[in-house]
Design goal:
Layout (H helix, E strand, L loop, with lengths): L2 H11 L2 H48 L16 E8 L4 E5 L12 H8 L4 E4 L8 E10 L4 E9 L1 H49 L17 H51 L5 H28 L9 E4 H10 L8 E6 L3 E4 L1 H18 L4 E7 L3 E8 L25 H4 L4 H11 L3 E6 L4 E8 L6
Parallel strand pairs: 7-9
Antiparallel strand pairs: 1-2, 1-5, 3-4, 4-5, 6-8, 9-10, 10-12, 11-12
Helix pairs in contact: 2-4, 5-6, 6-10, 7-8, 8-10
């Protein structure tokens, strides 16, 4: 691993609390440094502007005295070091200040030209016999016939001293402040992340043996609180799915055991009888049990596919009237007659095999329980198609009409596995209808049971 990769991996390996504290401290330190630099610059600029303004005020006051200026030139103290009045020939005609020269100009001719144009010069104090630096300005005076320039030099050493003092304070104060705020950030971030650590410990304690445990929900209405609620909702859904899966597996095993046990019993009896066994009859019984097993396995596989999320469907335009008539013709020799009627447009957008399975399951259930007849009607409009299957059997009590859509559900009148099926027919119907965006409900046919399936004419594509 390269050094750069090791450093990056080492940084990522640090705790989130330390990384957040380091990031916050770096940002804070950067902000304080930038603020300190700006403050020093603003202080220096403010002091410089004040010195220049005072020097120009002094120059204007001297210029207002006229030419030639009085001797000595009355000027205030403060930071003023030298005041000279220089005529158009660069000769000193008046001066003030402890170190002012009455004969030699403070500035050279080129420098005089610069101050006359309004520039401010920054010179060493040796010219005026002082230490430190000077700021020199010029103010026009006199008249057109006798032009003159008032040169004012002020001591600028206070600017550097004030800036150095402020910088020294920052050199001491900023690191101390950064350290204090880093410690405070570390403590605050640790307190903020404590609910996350509680969630981690709670998640670590959850196992298959304790699937019903829930994560601790912190107080407050922040993001961590909402995360804990969302995770608990997810755990509840997982628990529910796990419970349904265990129940489904148990029910499936129980259903498979019955035909397998019957098949095994027939074969063992036939084997025990040997040549005296009625092998054709044994084969017929075995085939019946094998058919039951095949139907049950097909139902289980279909339910497993329906449980898959975002299961793609083979959609096409299907005429439910024709499909119902096709399926009903296979019941011509059923124990009760099946009548079919259609009214209005019955074309939907869906899976023909799935819809055929819906109709067949409904007719199987109706024929199994009907007393004398079964009727199927289809009707439609521009928005939906309705398929109704009614029988004149014992019906289902209103309290049980929702429960029978559950998997492996049998009511008291239909508990025989031979006569009552596996208890998956209506569950498959509802799952297939919902996959098509429709609904399936039970009602009273007076007497008997009415199953109503409503399907949209157009299934929106995902």
């Amino acid at each position: 691993m390269t050094l750069t990769g090791w450093r990056a991996g080492g940084w990522r390996a640090r705790g989130l609390r330390l990384r957040l504290t380091a990031a916050a401290t770096l940002l804070l330190a950067g902000g304080l440094v930038v603020g300190a630099v700006l403050m020093v610059a603003l202080l220096s600029h403010s002091l410089t502007s004040a010195l220049d303004s005072g020097a120009r005020t002094t120059g204007r006051d001297v210029a207002a005295m006229g030419m030639p200026p009085p001797e000595p030139i009355p000027v205030g103290g403060g930071n003023i070091v030298v005041v000279q009045v220089v005529d158009g020939d660069d000769r000193v005609v008046g001066a003030a200040g402890a170190t002012a020269d009455h004969l030699v100009p403070l500035l050279s001719p080129s420098e005089l030209t610069q101050v006359r144009s309004g520039r401010v010069l920054h010179l060493h104090g040796d010219r005026a016999g002082v230490t430190g630096m000077l700021r020199v300005v010029g103010v026009q005076s006199g008249s057109e016939k006798q032009p003159a320039t008032v040169v004012v030099a002020v001591d600028a050493s206070s600017i550097g001293e004030s800036s150095r003092l402020l910088r020294n304070e920052f050199f001491i104060g900023v690191p101390v402040l950064v350290i204090l705020l880093a410690l405070l950030s570390y403590a605050v971030i640790g307190r903020t992340l404590r609910p996350v650590e509680d969630l981690r410990r709670g998640a670590a304690e959850i196992s298959g043996a304790a699937a019903s445990r829930r994560l601790p929900v912190p107080d407050g209405q922040d993001e961590v609180h909402r995360l804990a609620l969302t995770l608990n909702d997810m755990l509840a859904r997982l628990d529910d799915a796990s419970a349904r899966q265990r129940a489904f597996i148990g029910d499936a095993a129980h259903e498979l055991r019955s035909p397998l046990a019957s098949l095994r019993t027939q074969l063992e009896v036939a084997q025990h009888l040997g040549e005296r066994a009625d092998w054709p009859r044994t084969a017929d019984g075995a085939l019946i049990d094998i058919d039951r097993l095949s139907r049950l396995v097909d139902d289980l596989l279909l339910l497993a596919r329906l449980d898959e999320p975002a299961r793609p469907q083979r959609r096409s335009r299907v005429d439910l009237g024709d499909l119902v008539g096709e399926v009903a013709r296979s019941y011509e020799h059923a124990r009760v007659p099946v009548s079919v009627s259609a009214d209005g447009p019955t074309t939907v957008d869906g899976d023909a095999d799935g819809l055929r399975r819906v109709v067949r399951n409904l007719l199987d259930n109706a024929v199994r329980h009907a007393a004398g007849k079964v009727s199927v009607t289809t009707s439609g409009s521009s928005r939906r198609v309705v398929v109704t299957v009614a029988d004149d059997g014992p019906g289902i009590a209103e309290a049980d009409r929702e429960r029978v859509f559950g998997r492996f559900t049998r009511l008291d009148d239909a508990r025989s596995r031979d006569a009552g099926g596996s208890g998956l027919g209506l569950a498959i119907v509802r799952d297939l209808v919902r996959a098509h965006g429709g609904s399936a409900t039970l009602g009273d046919a007076g007497p008997g049971l009415r199953v109503t399936v409503r399907l949209p004419t157009s299934l929106r594509r995902s």
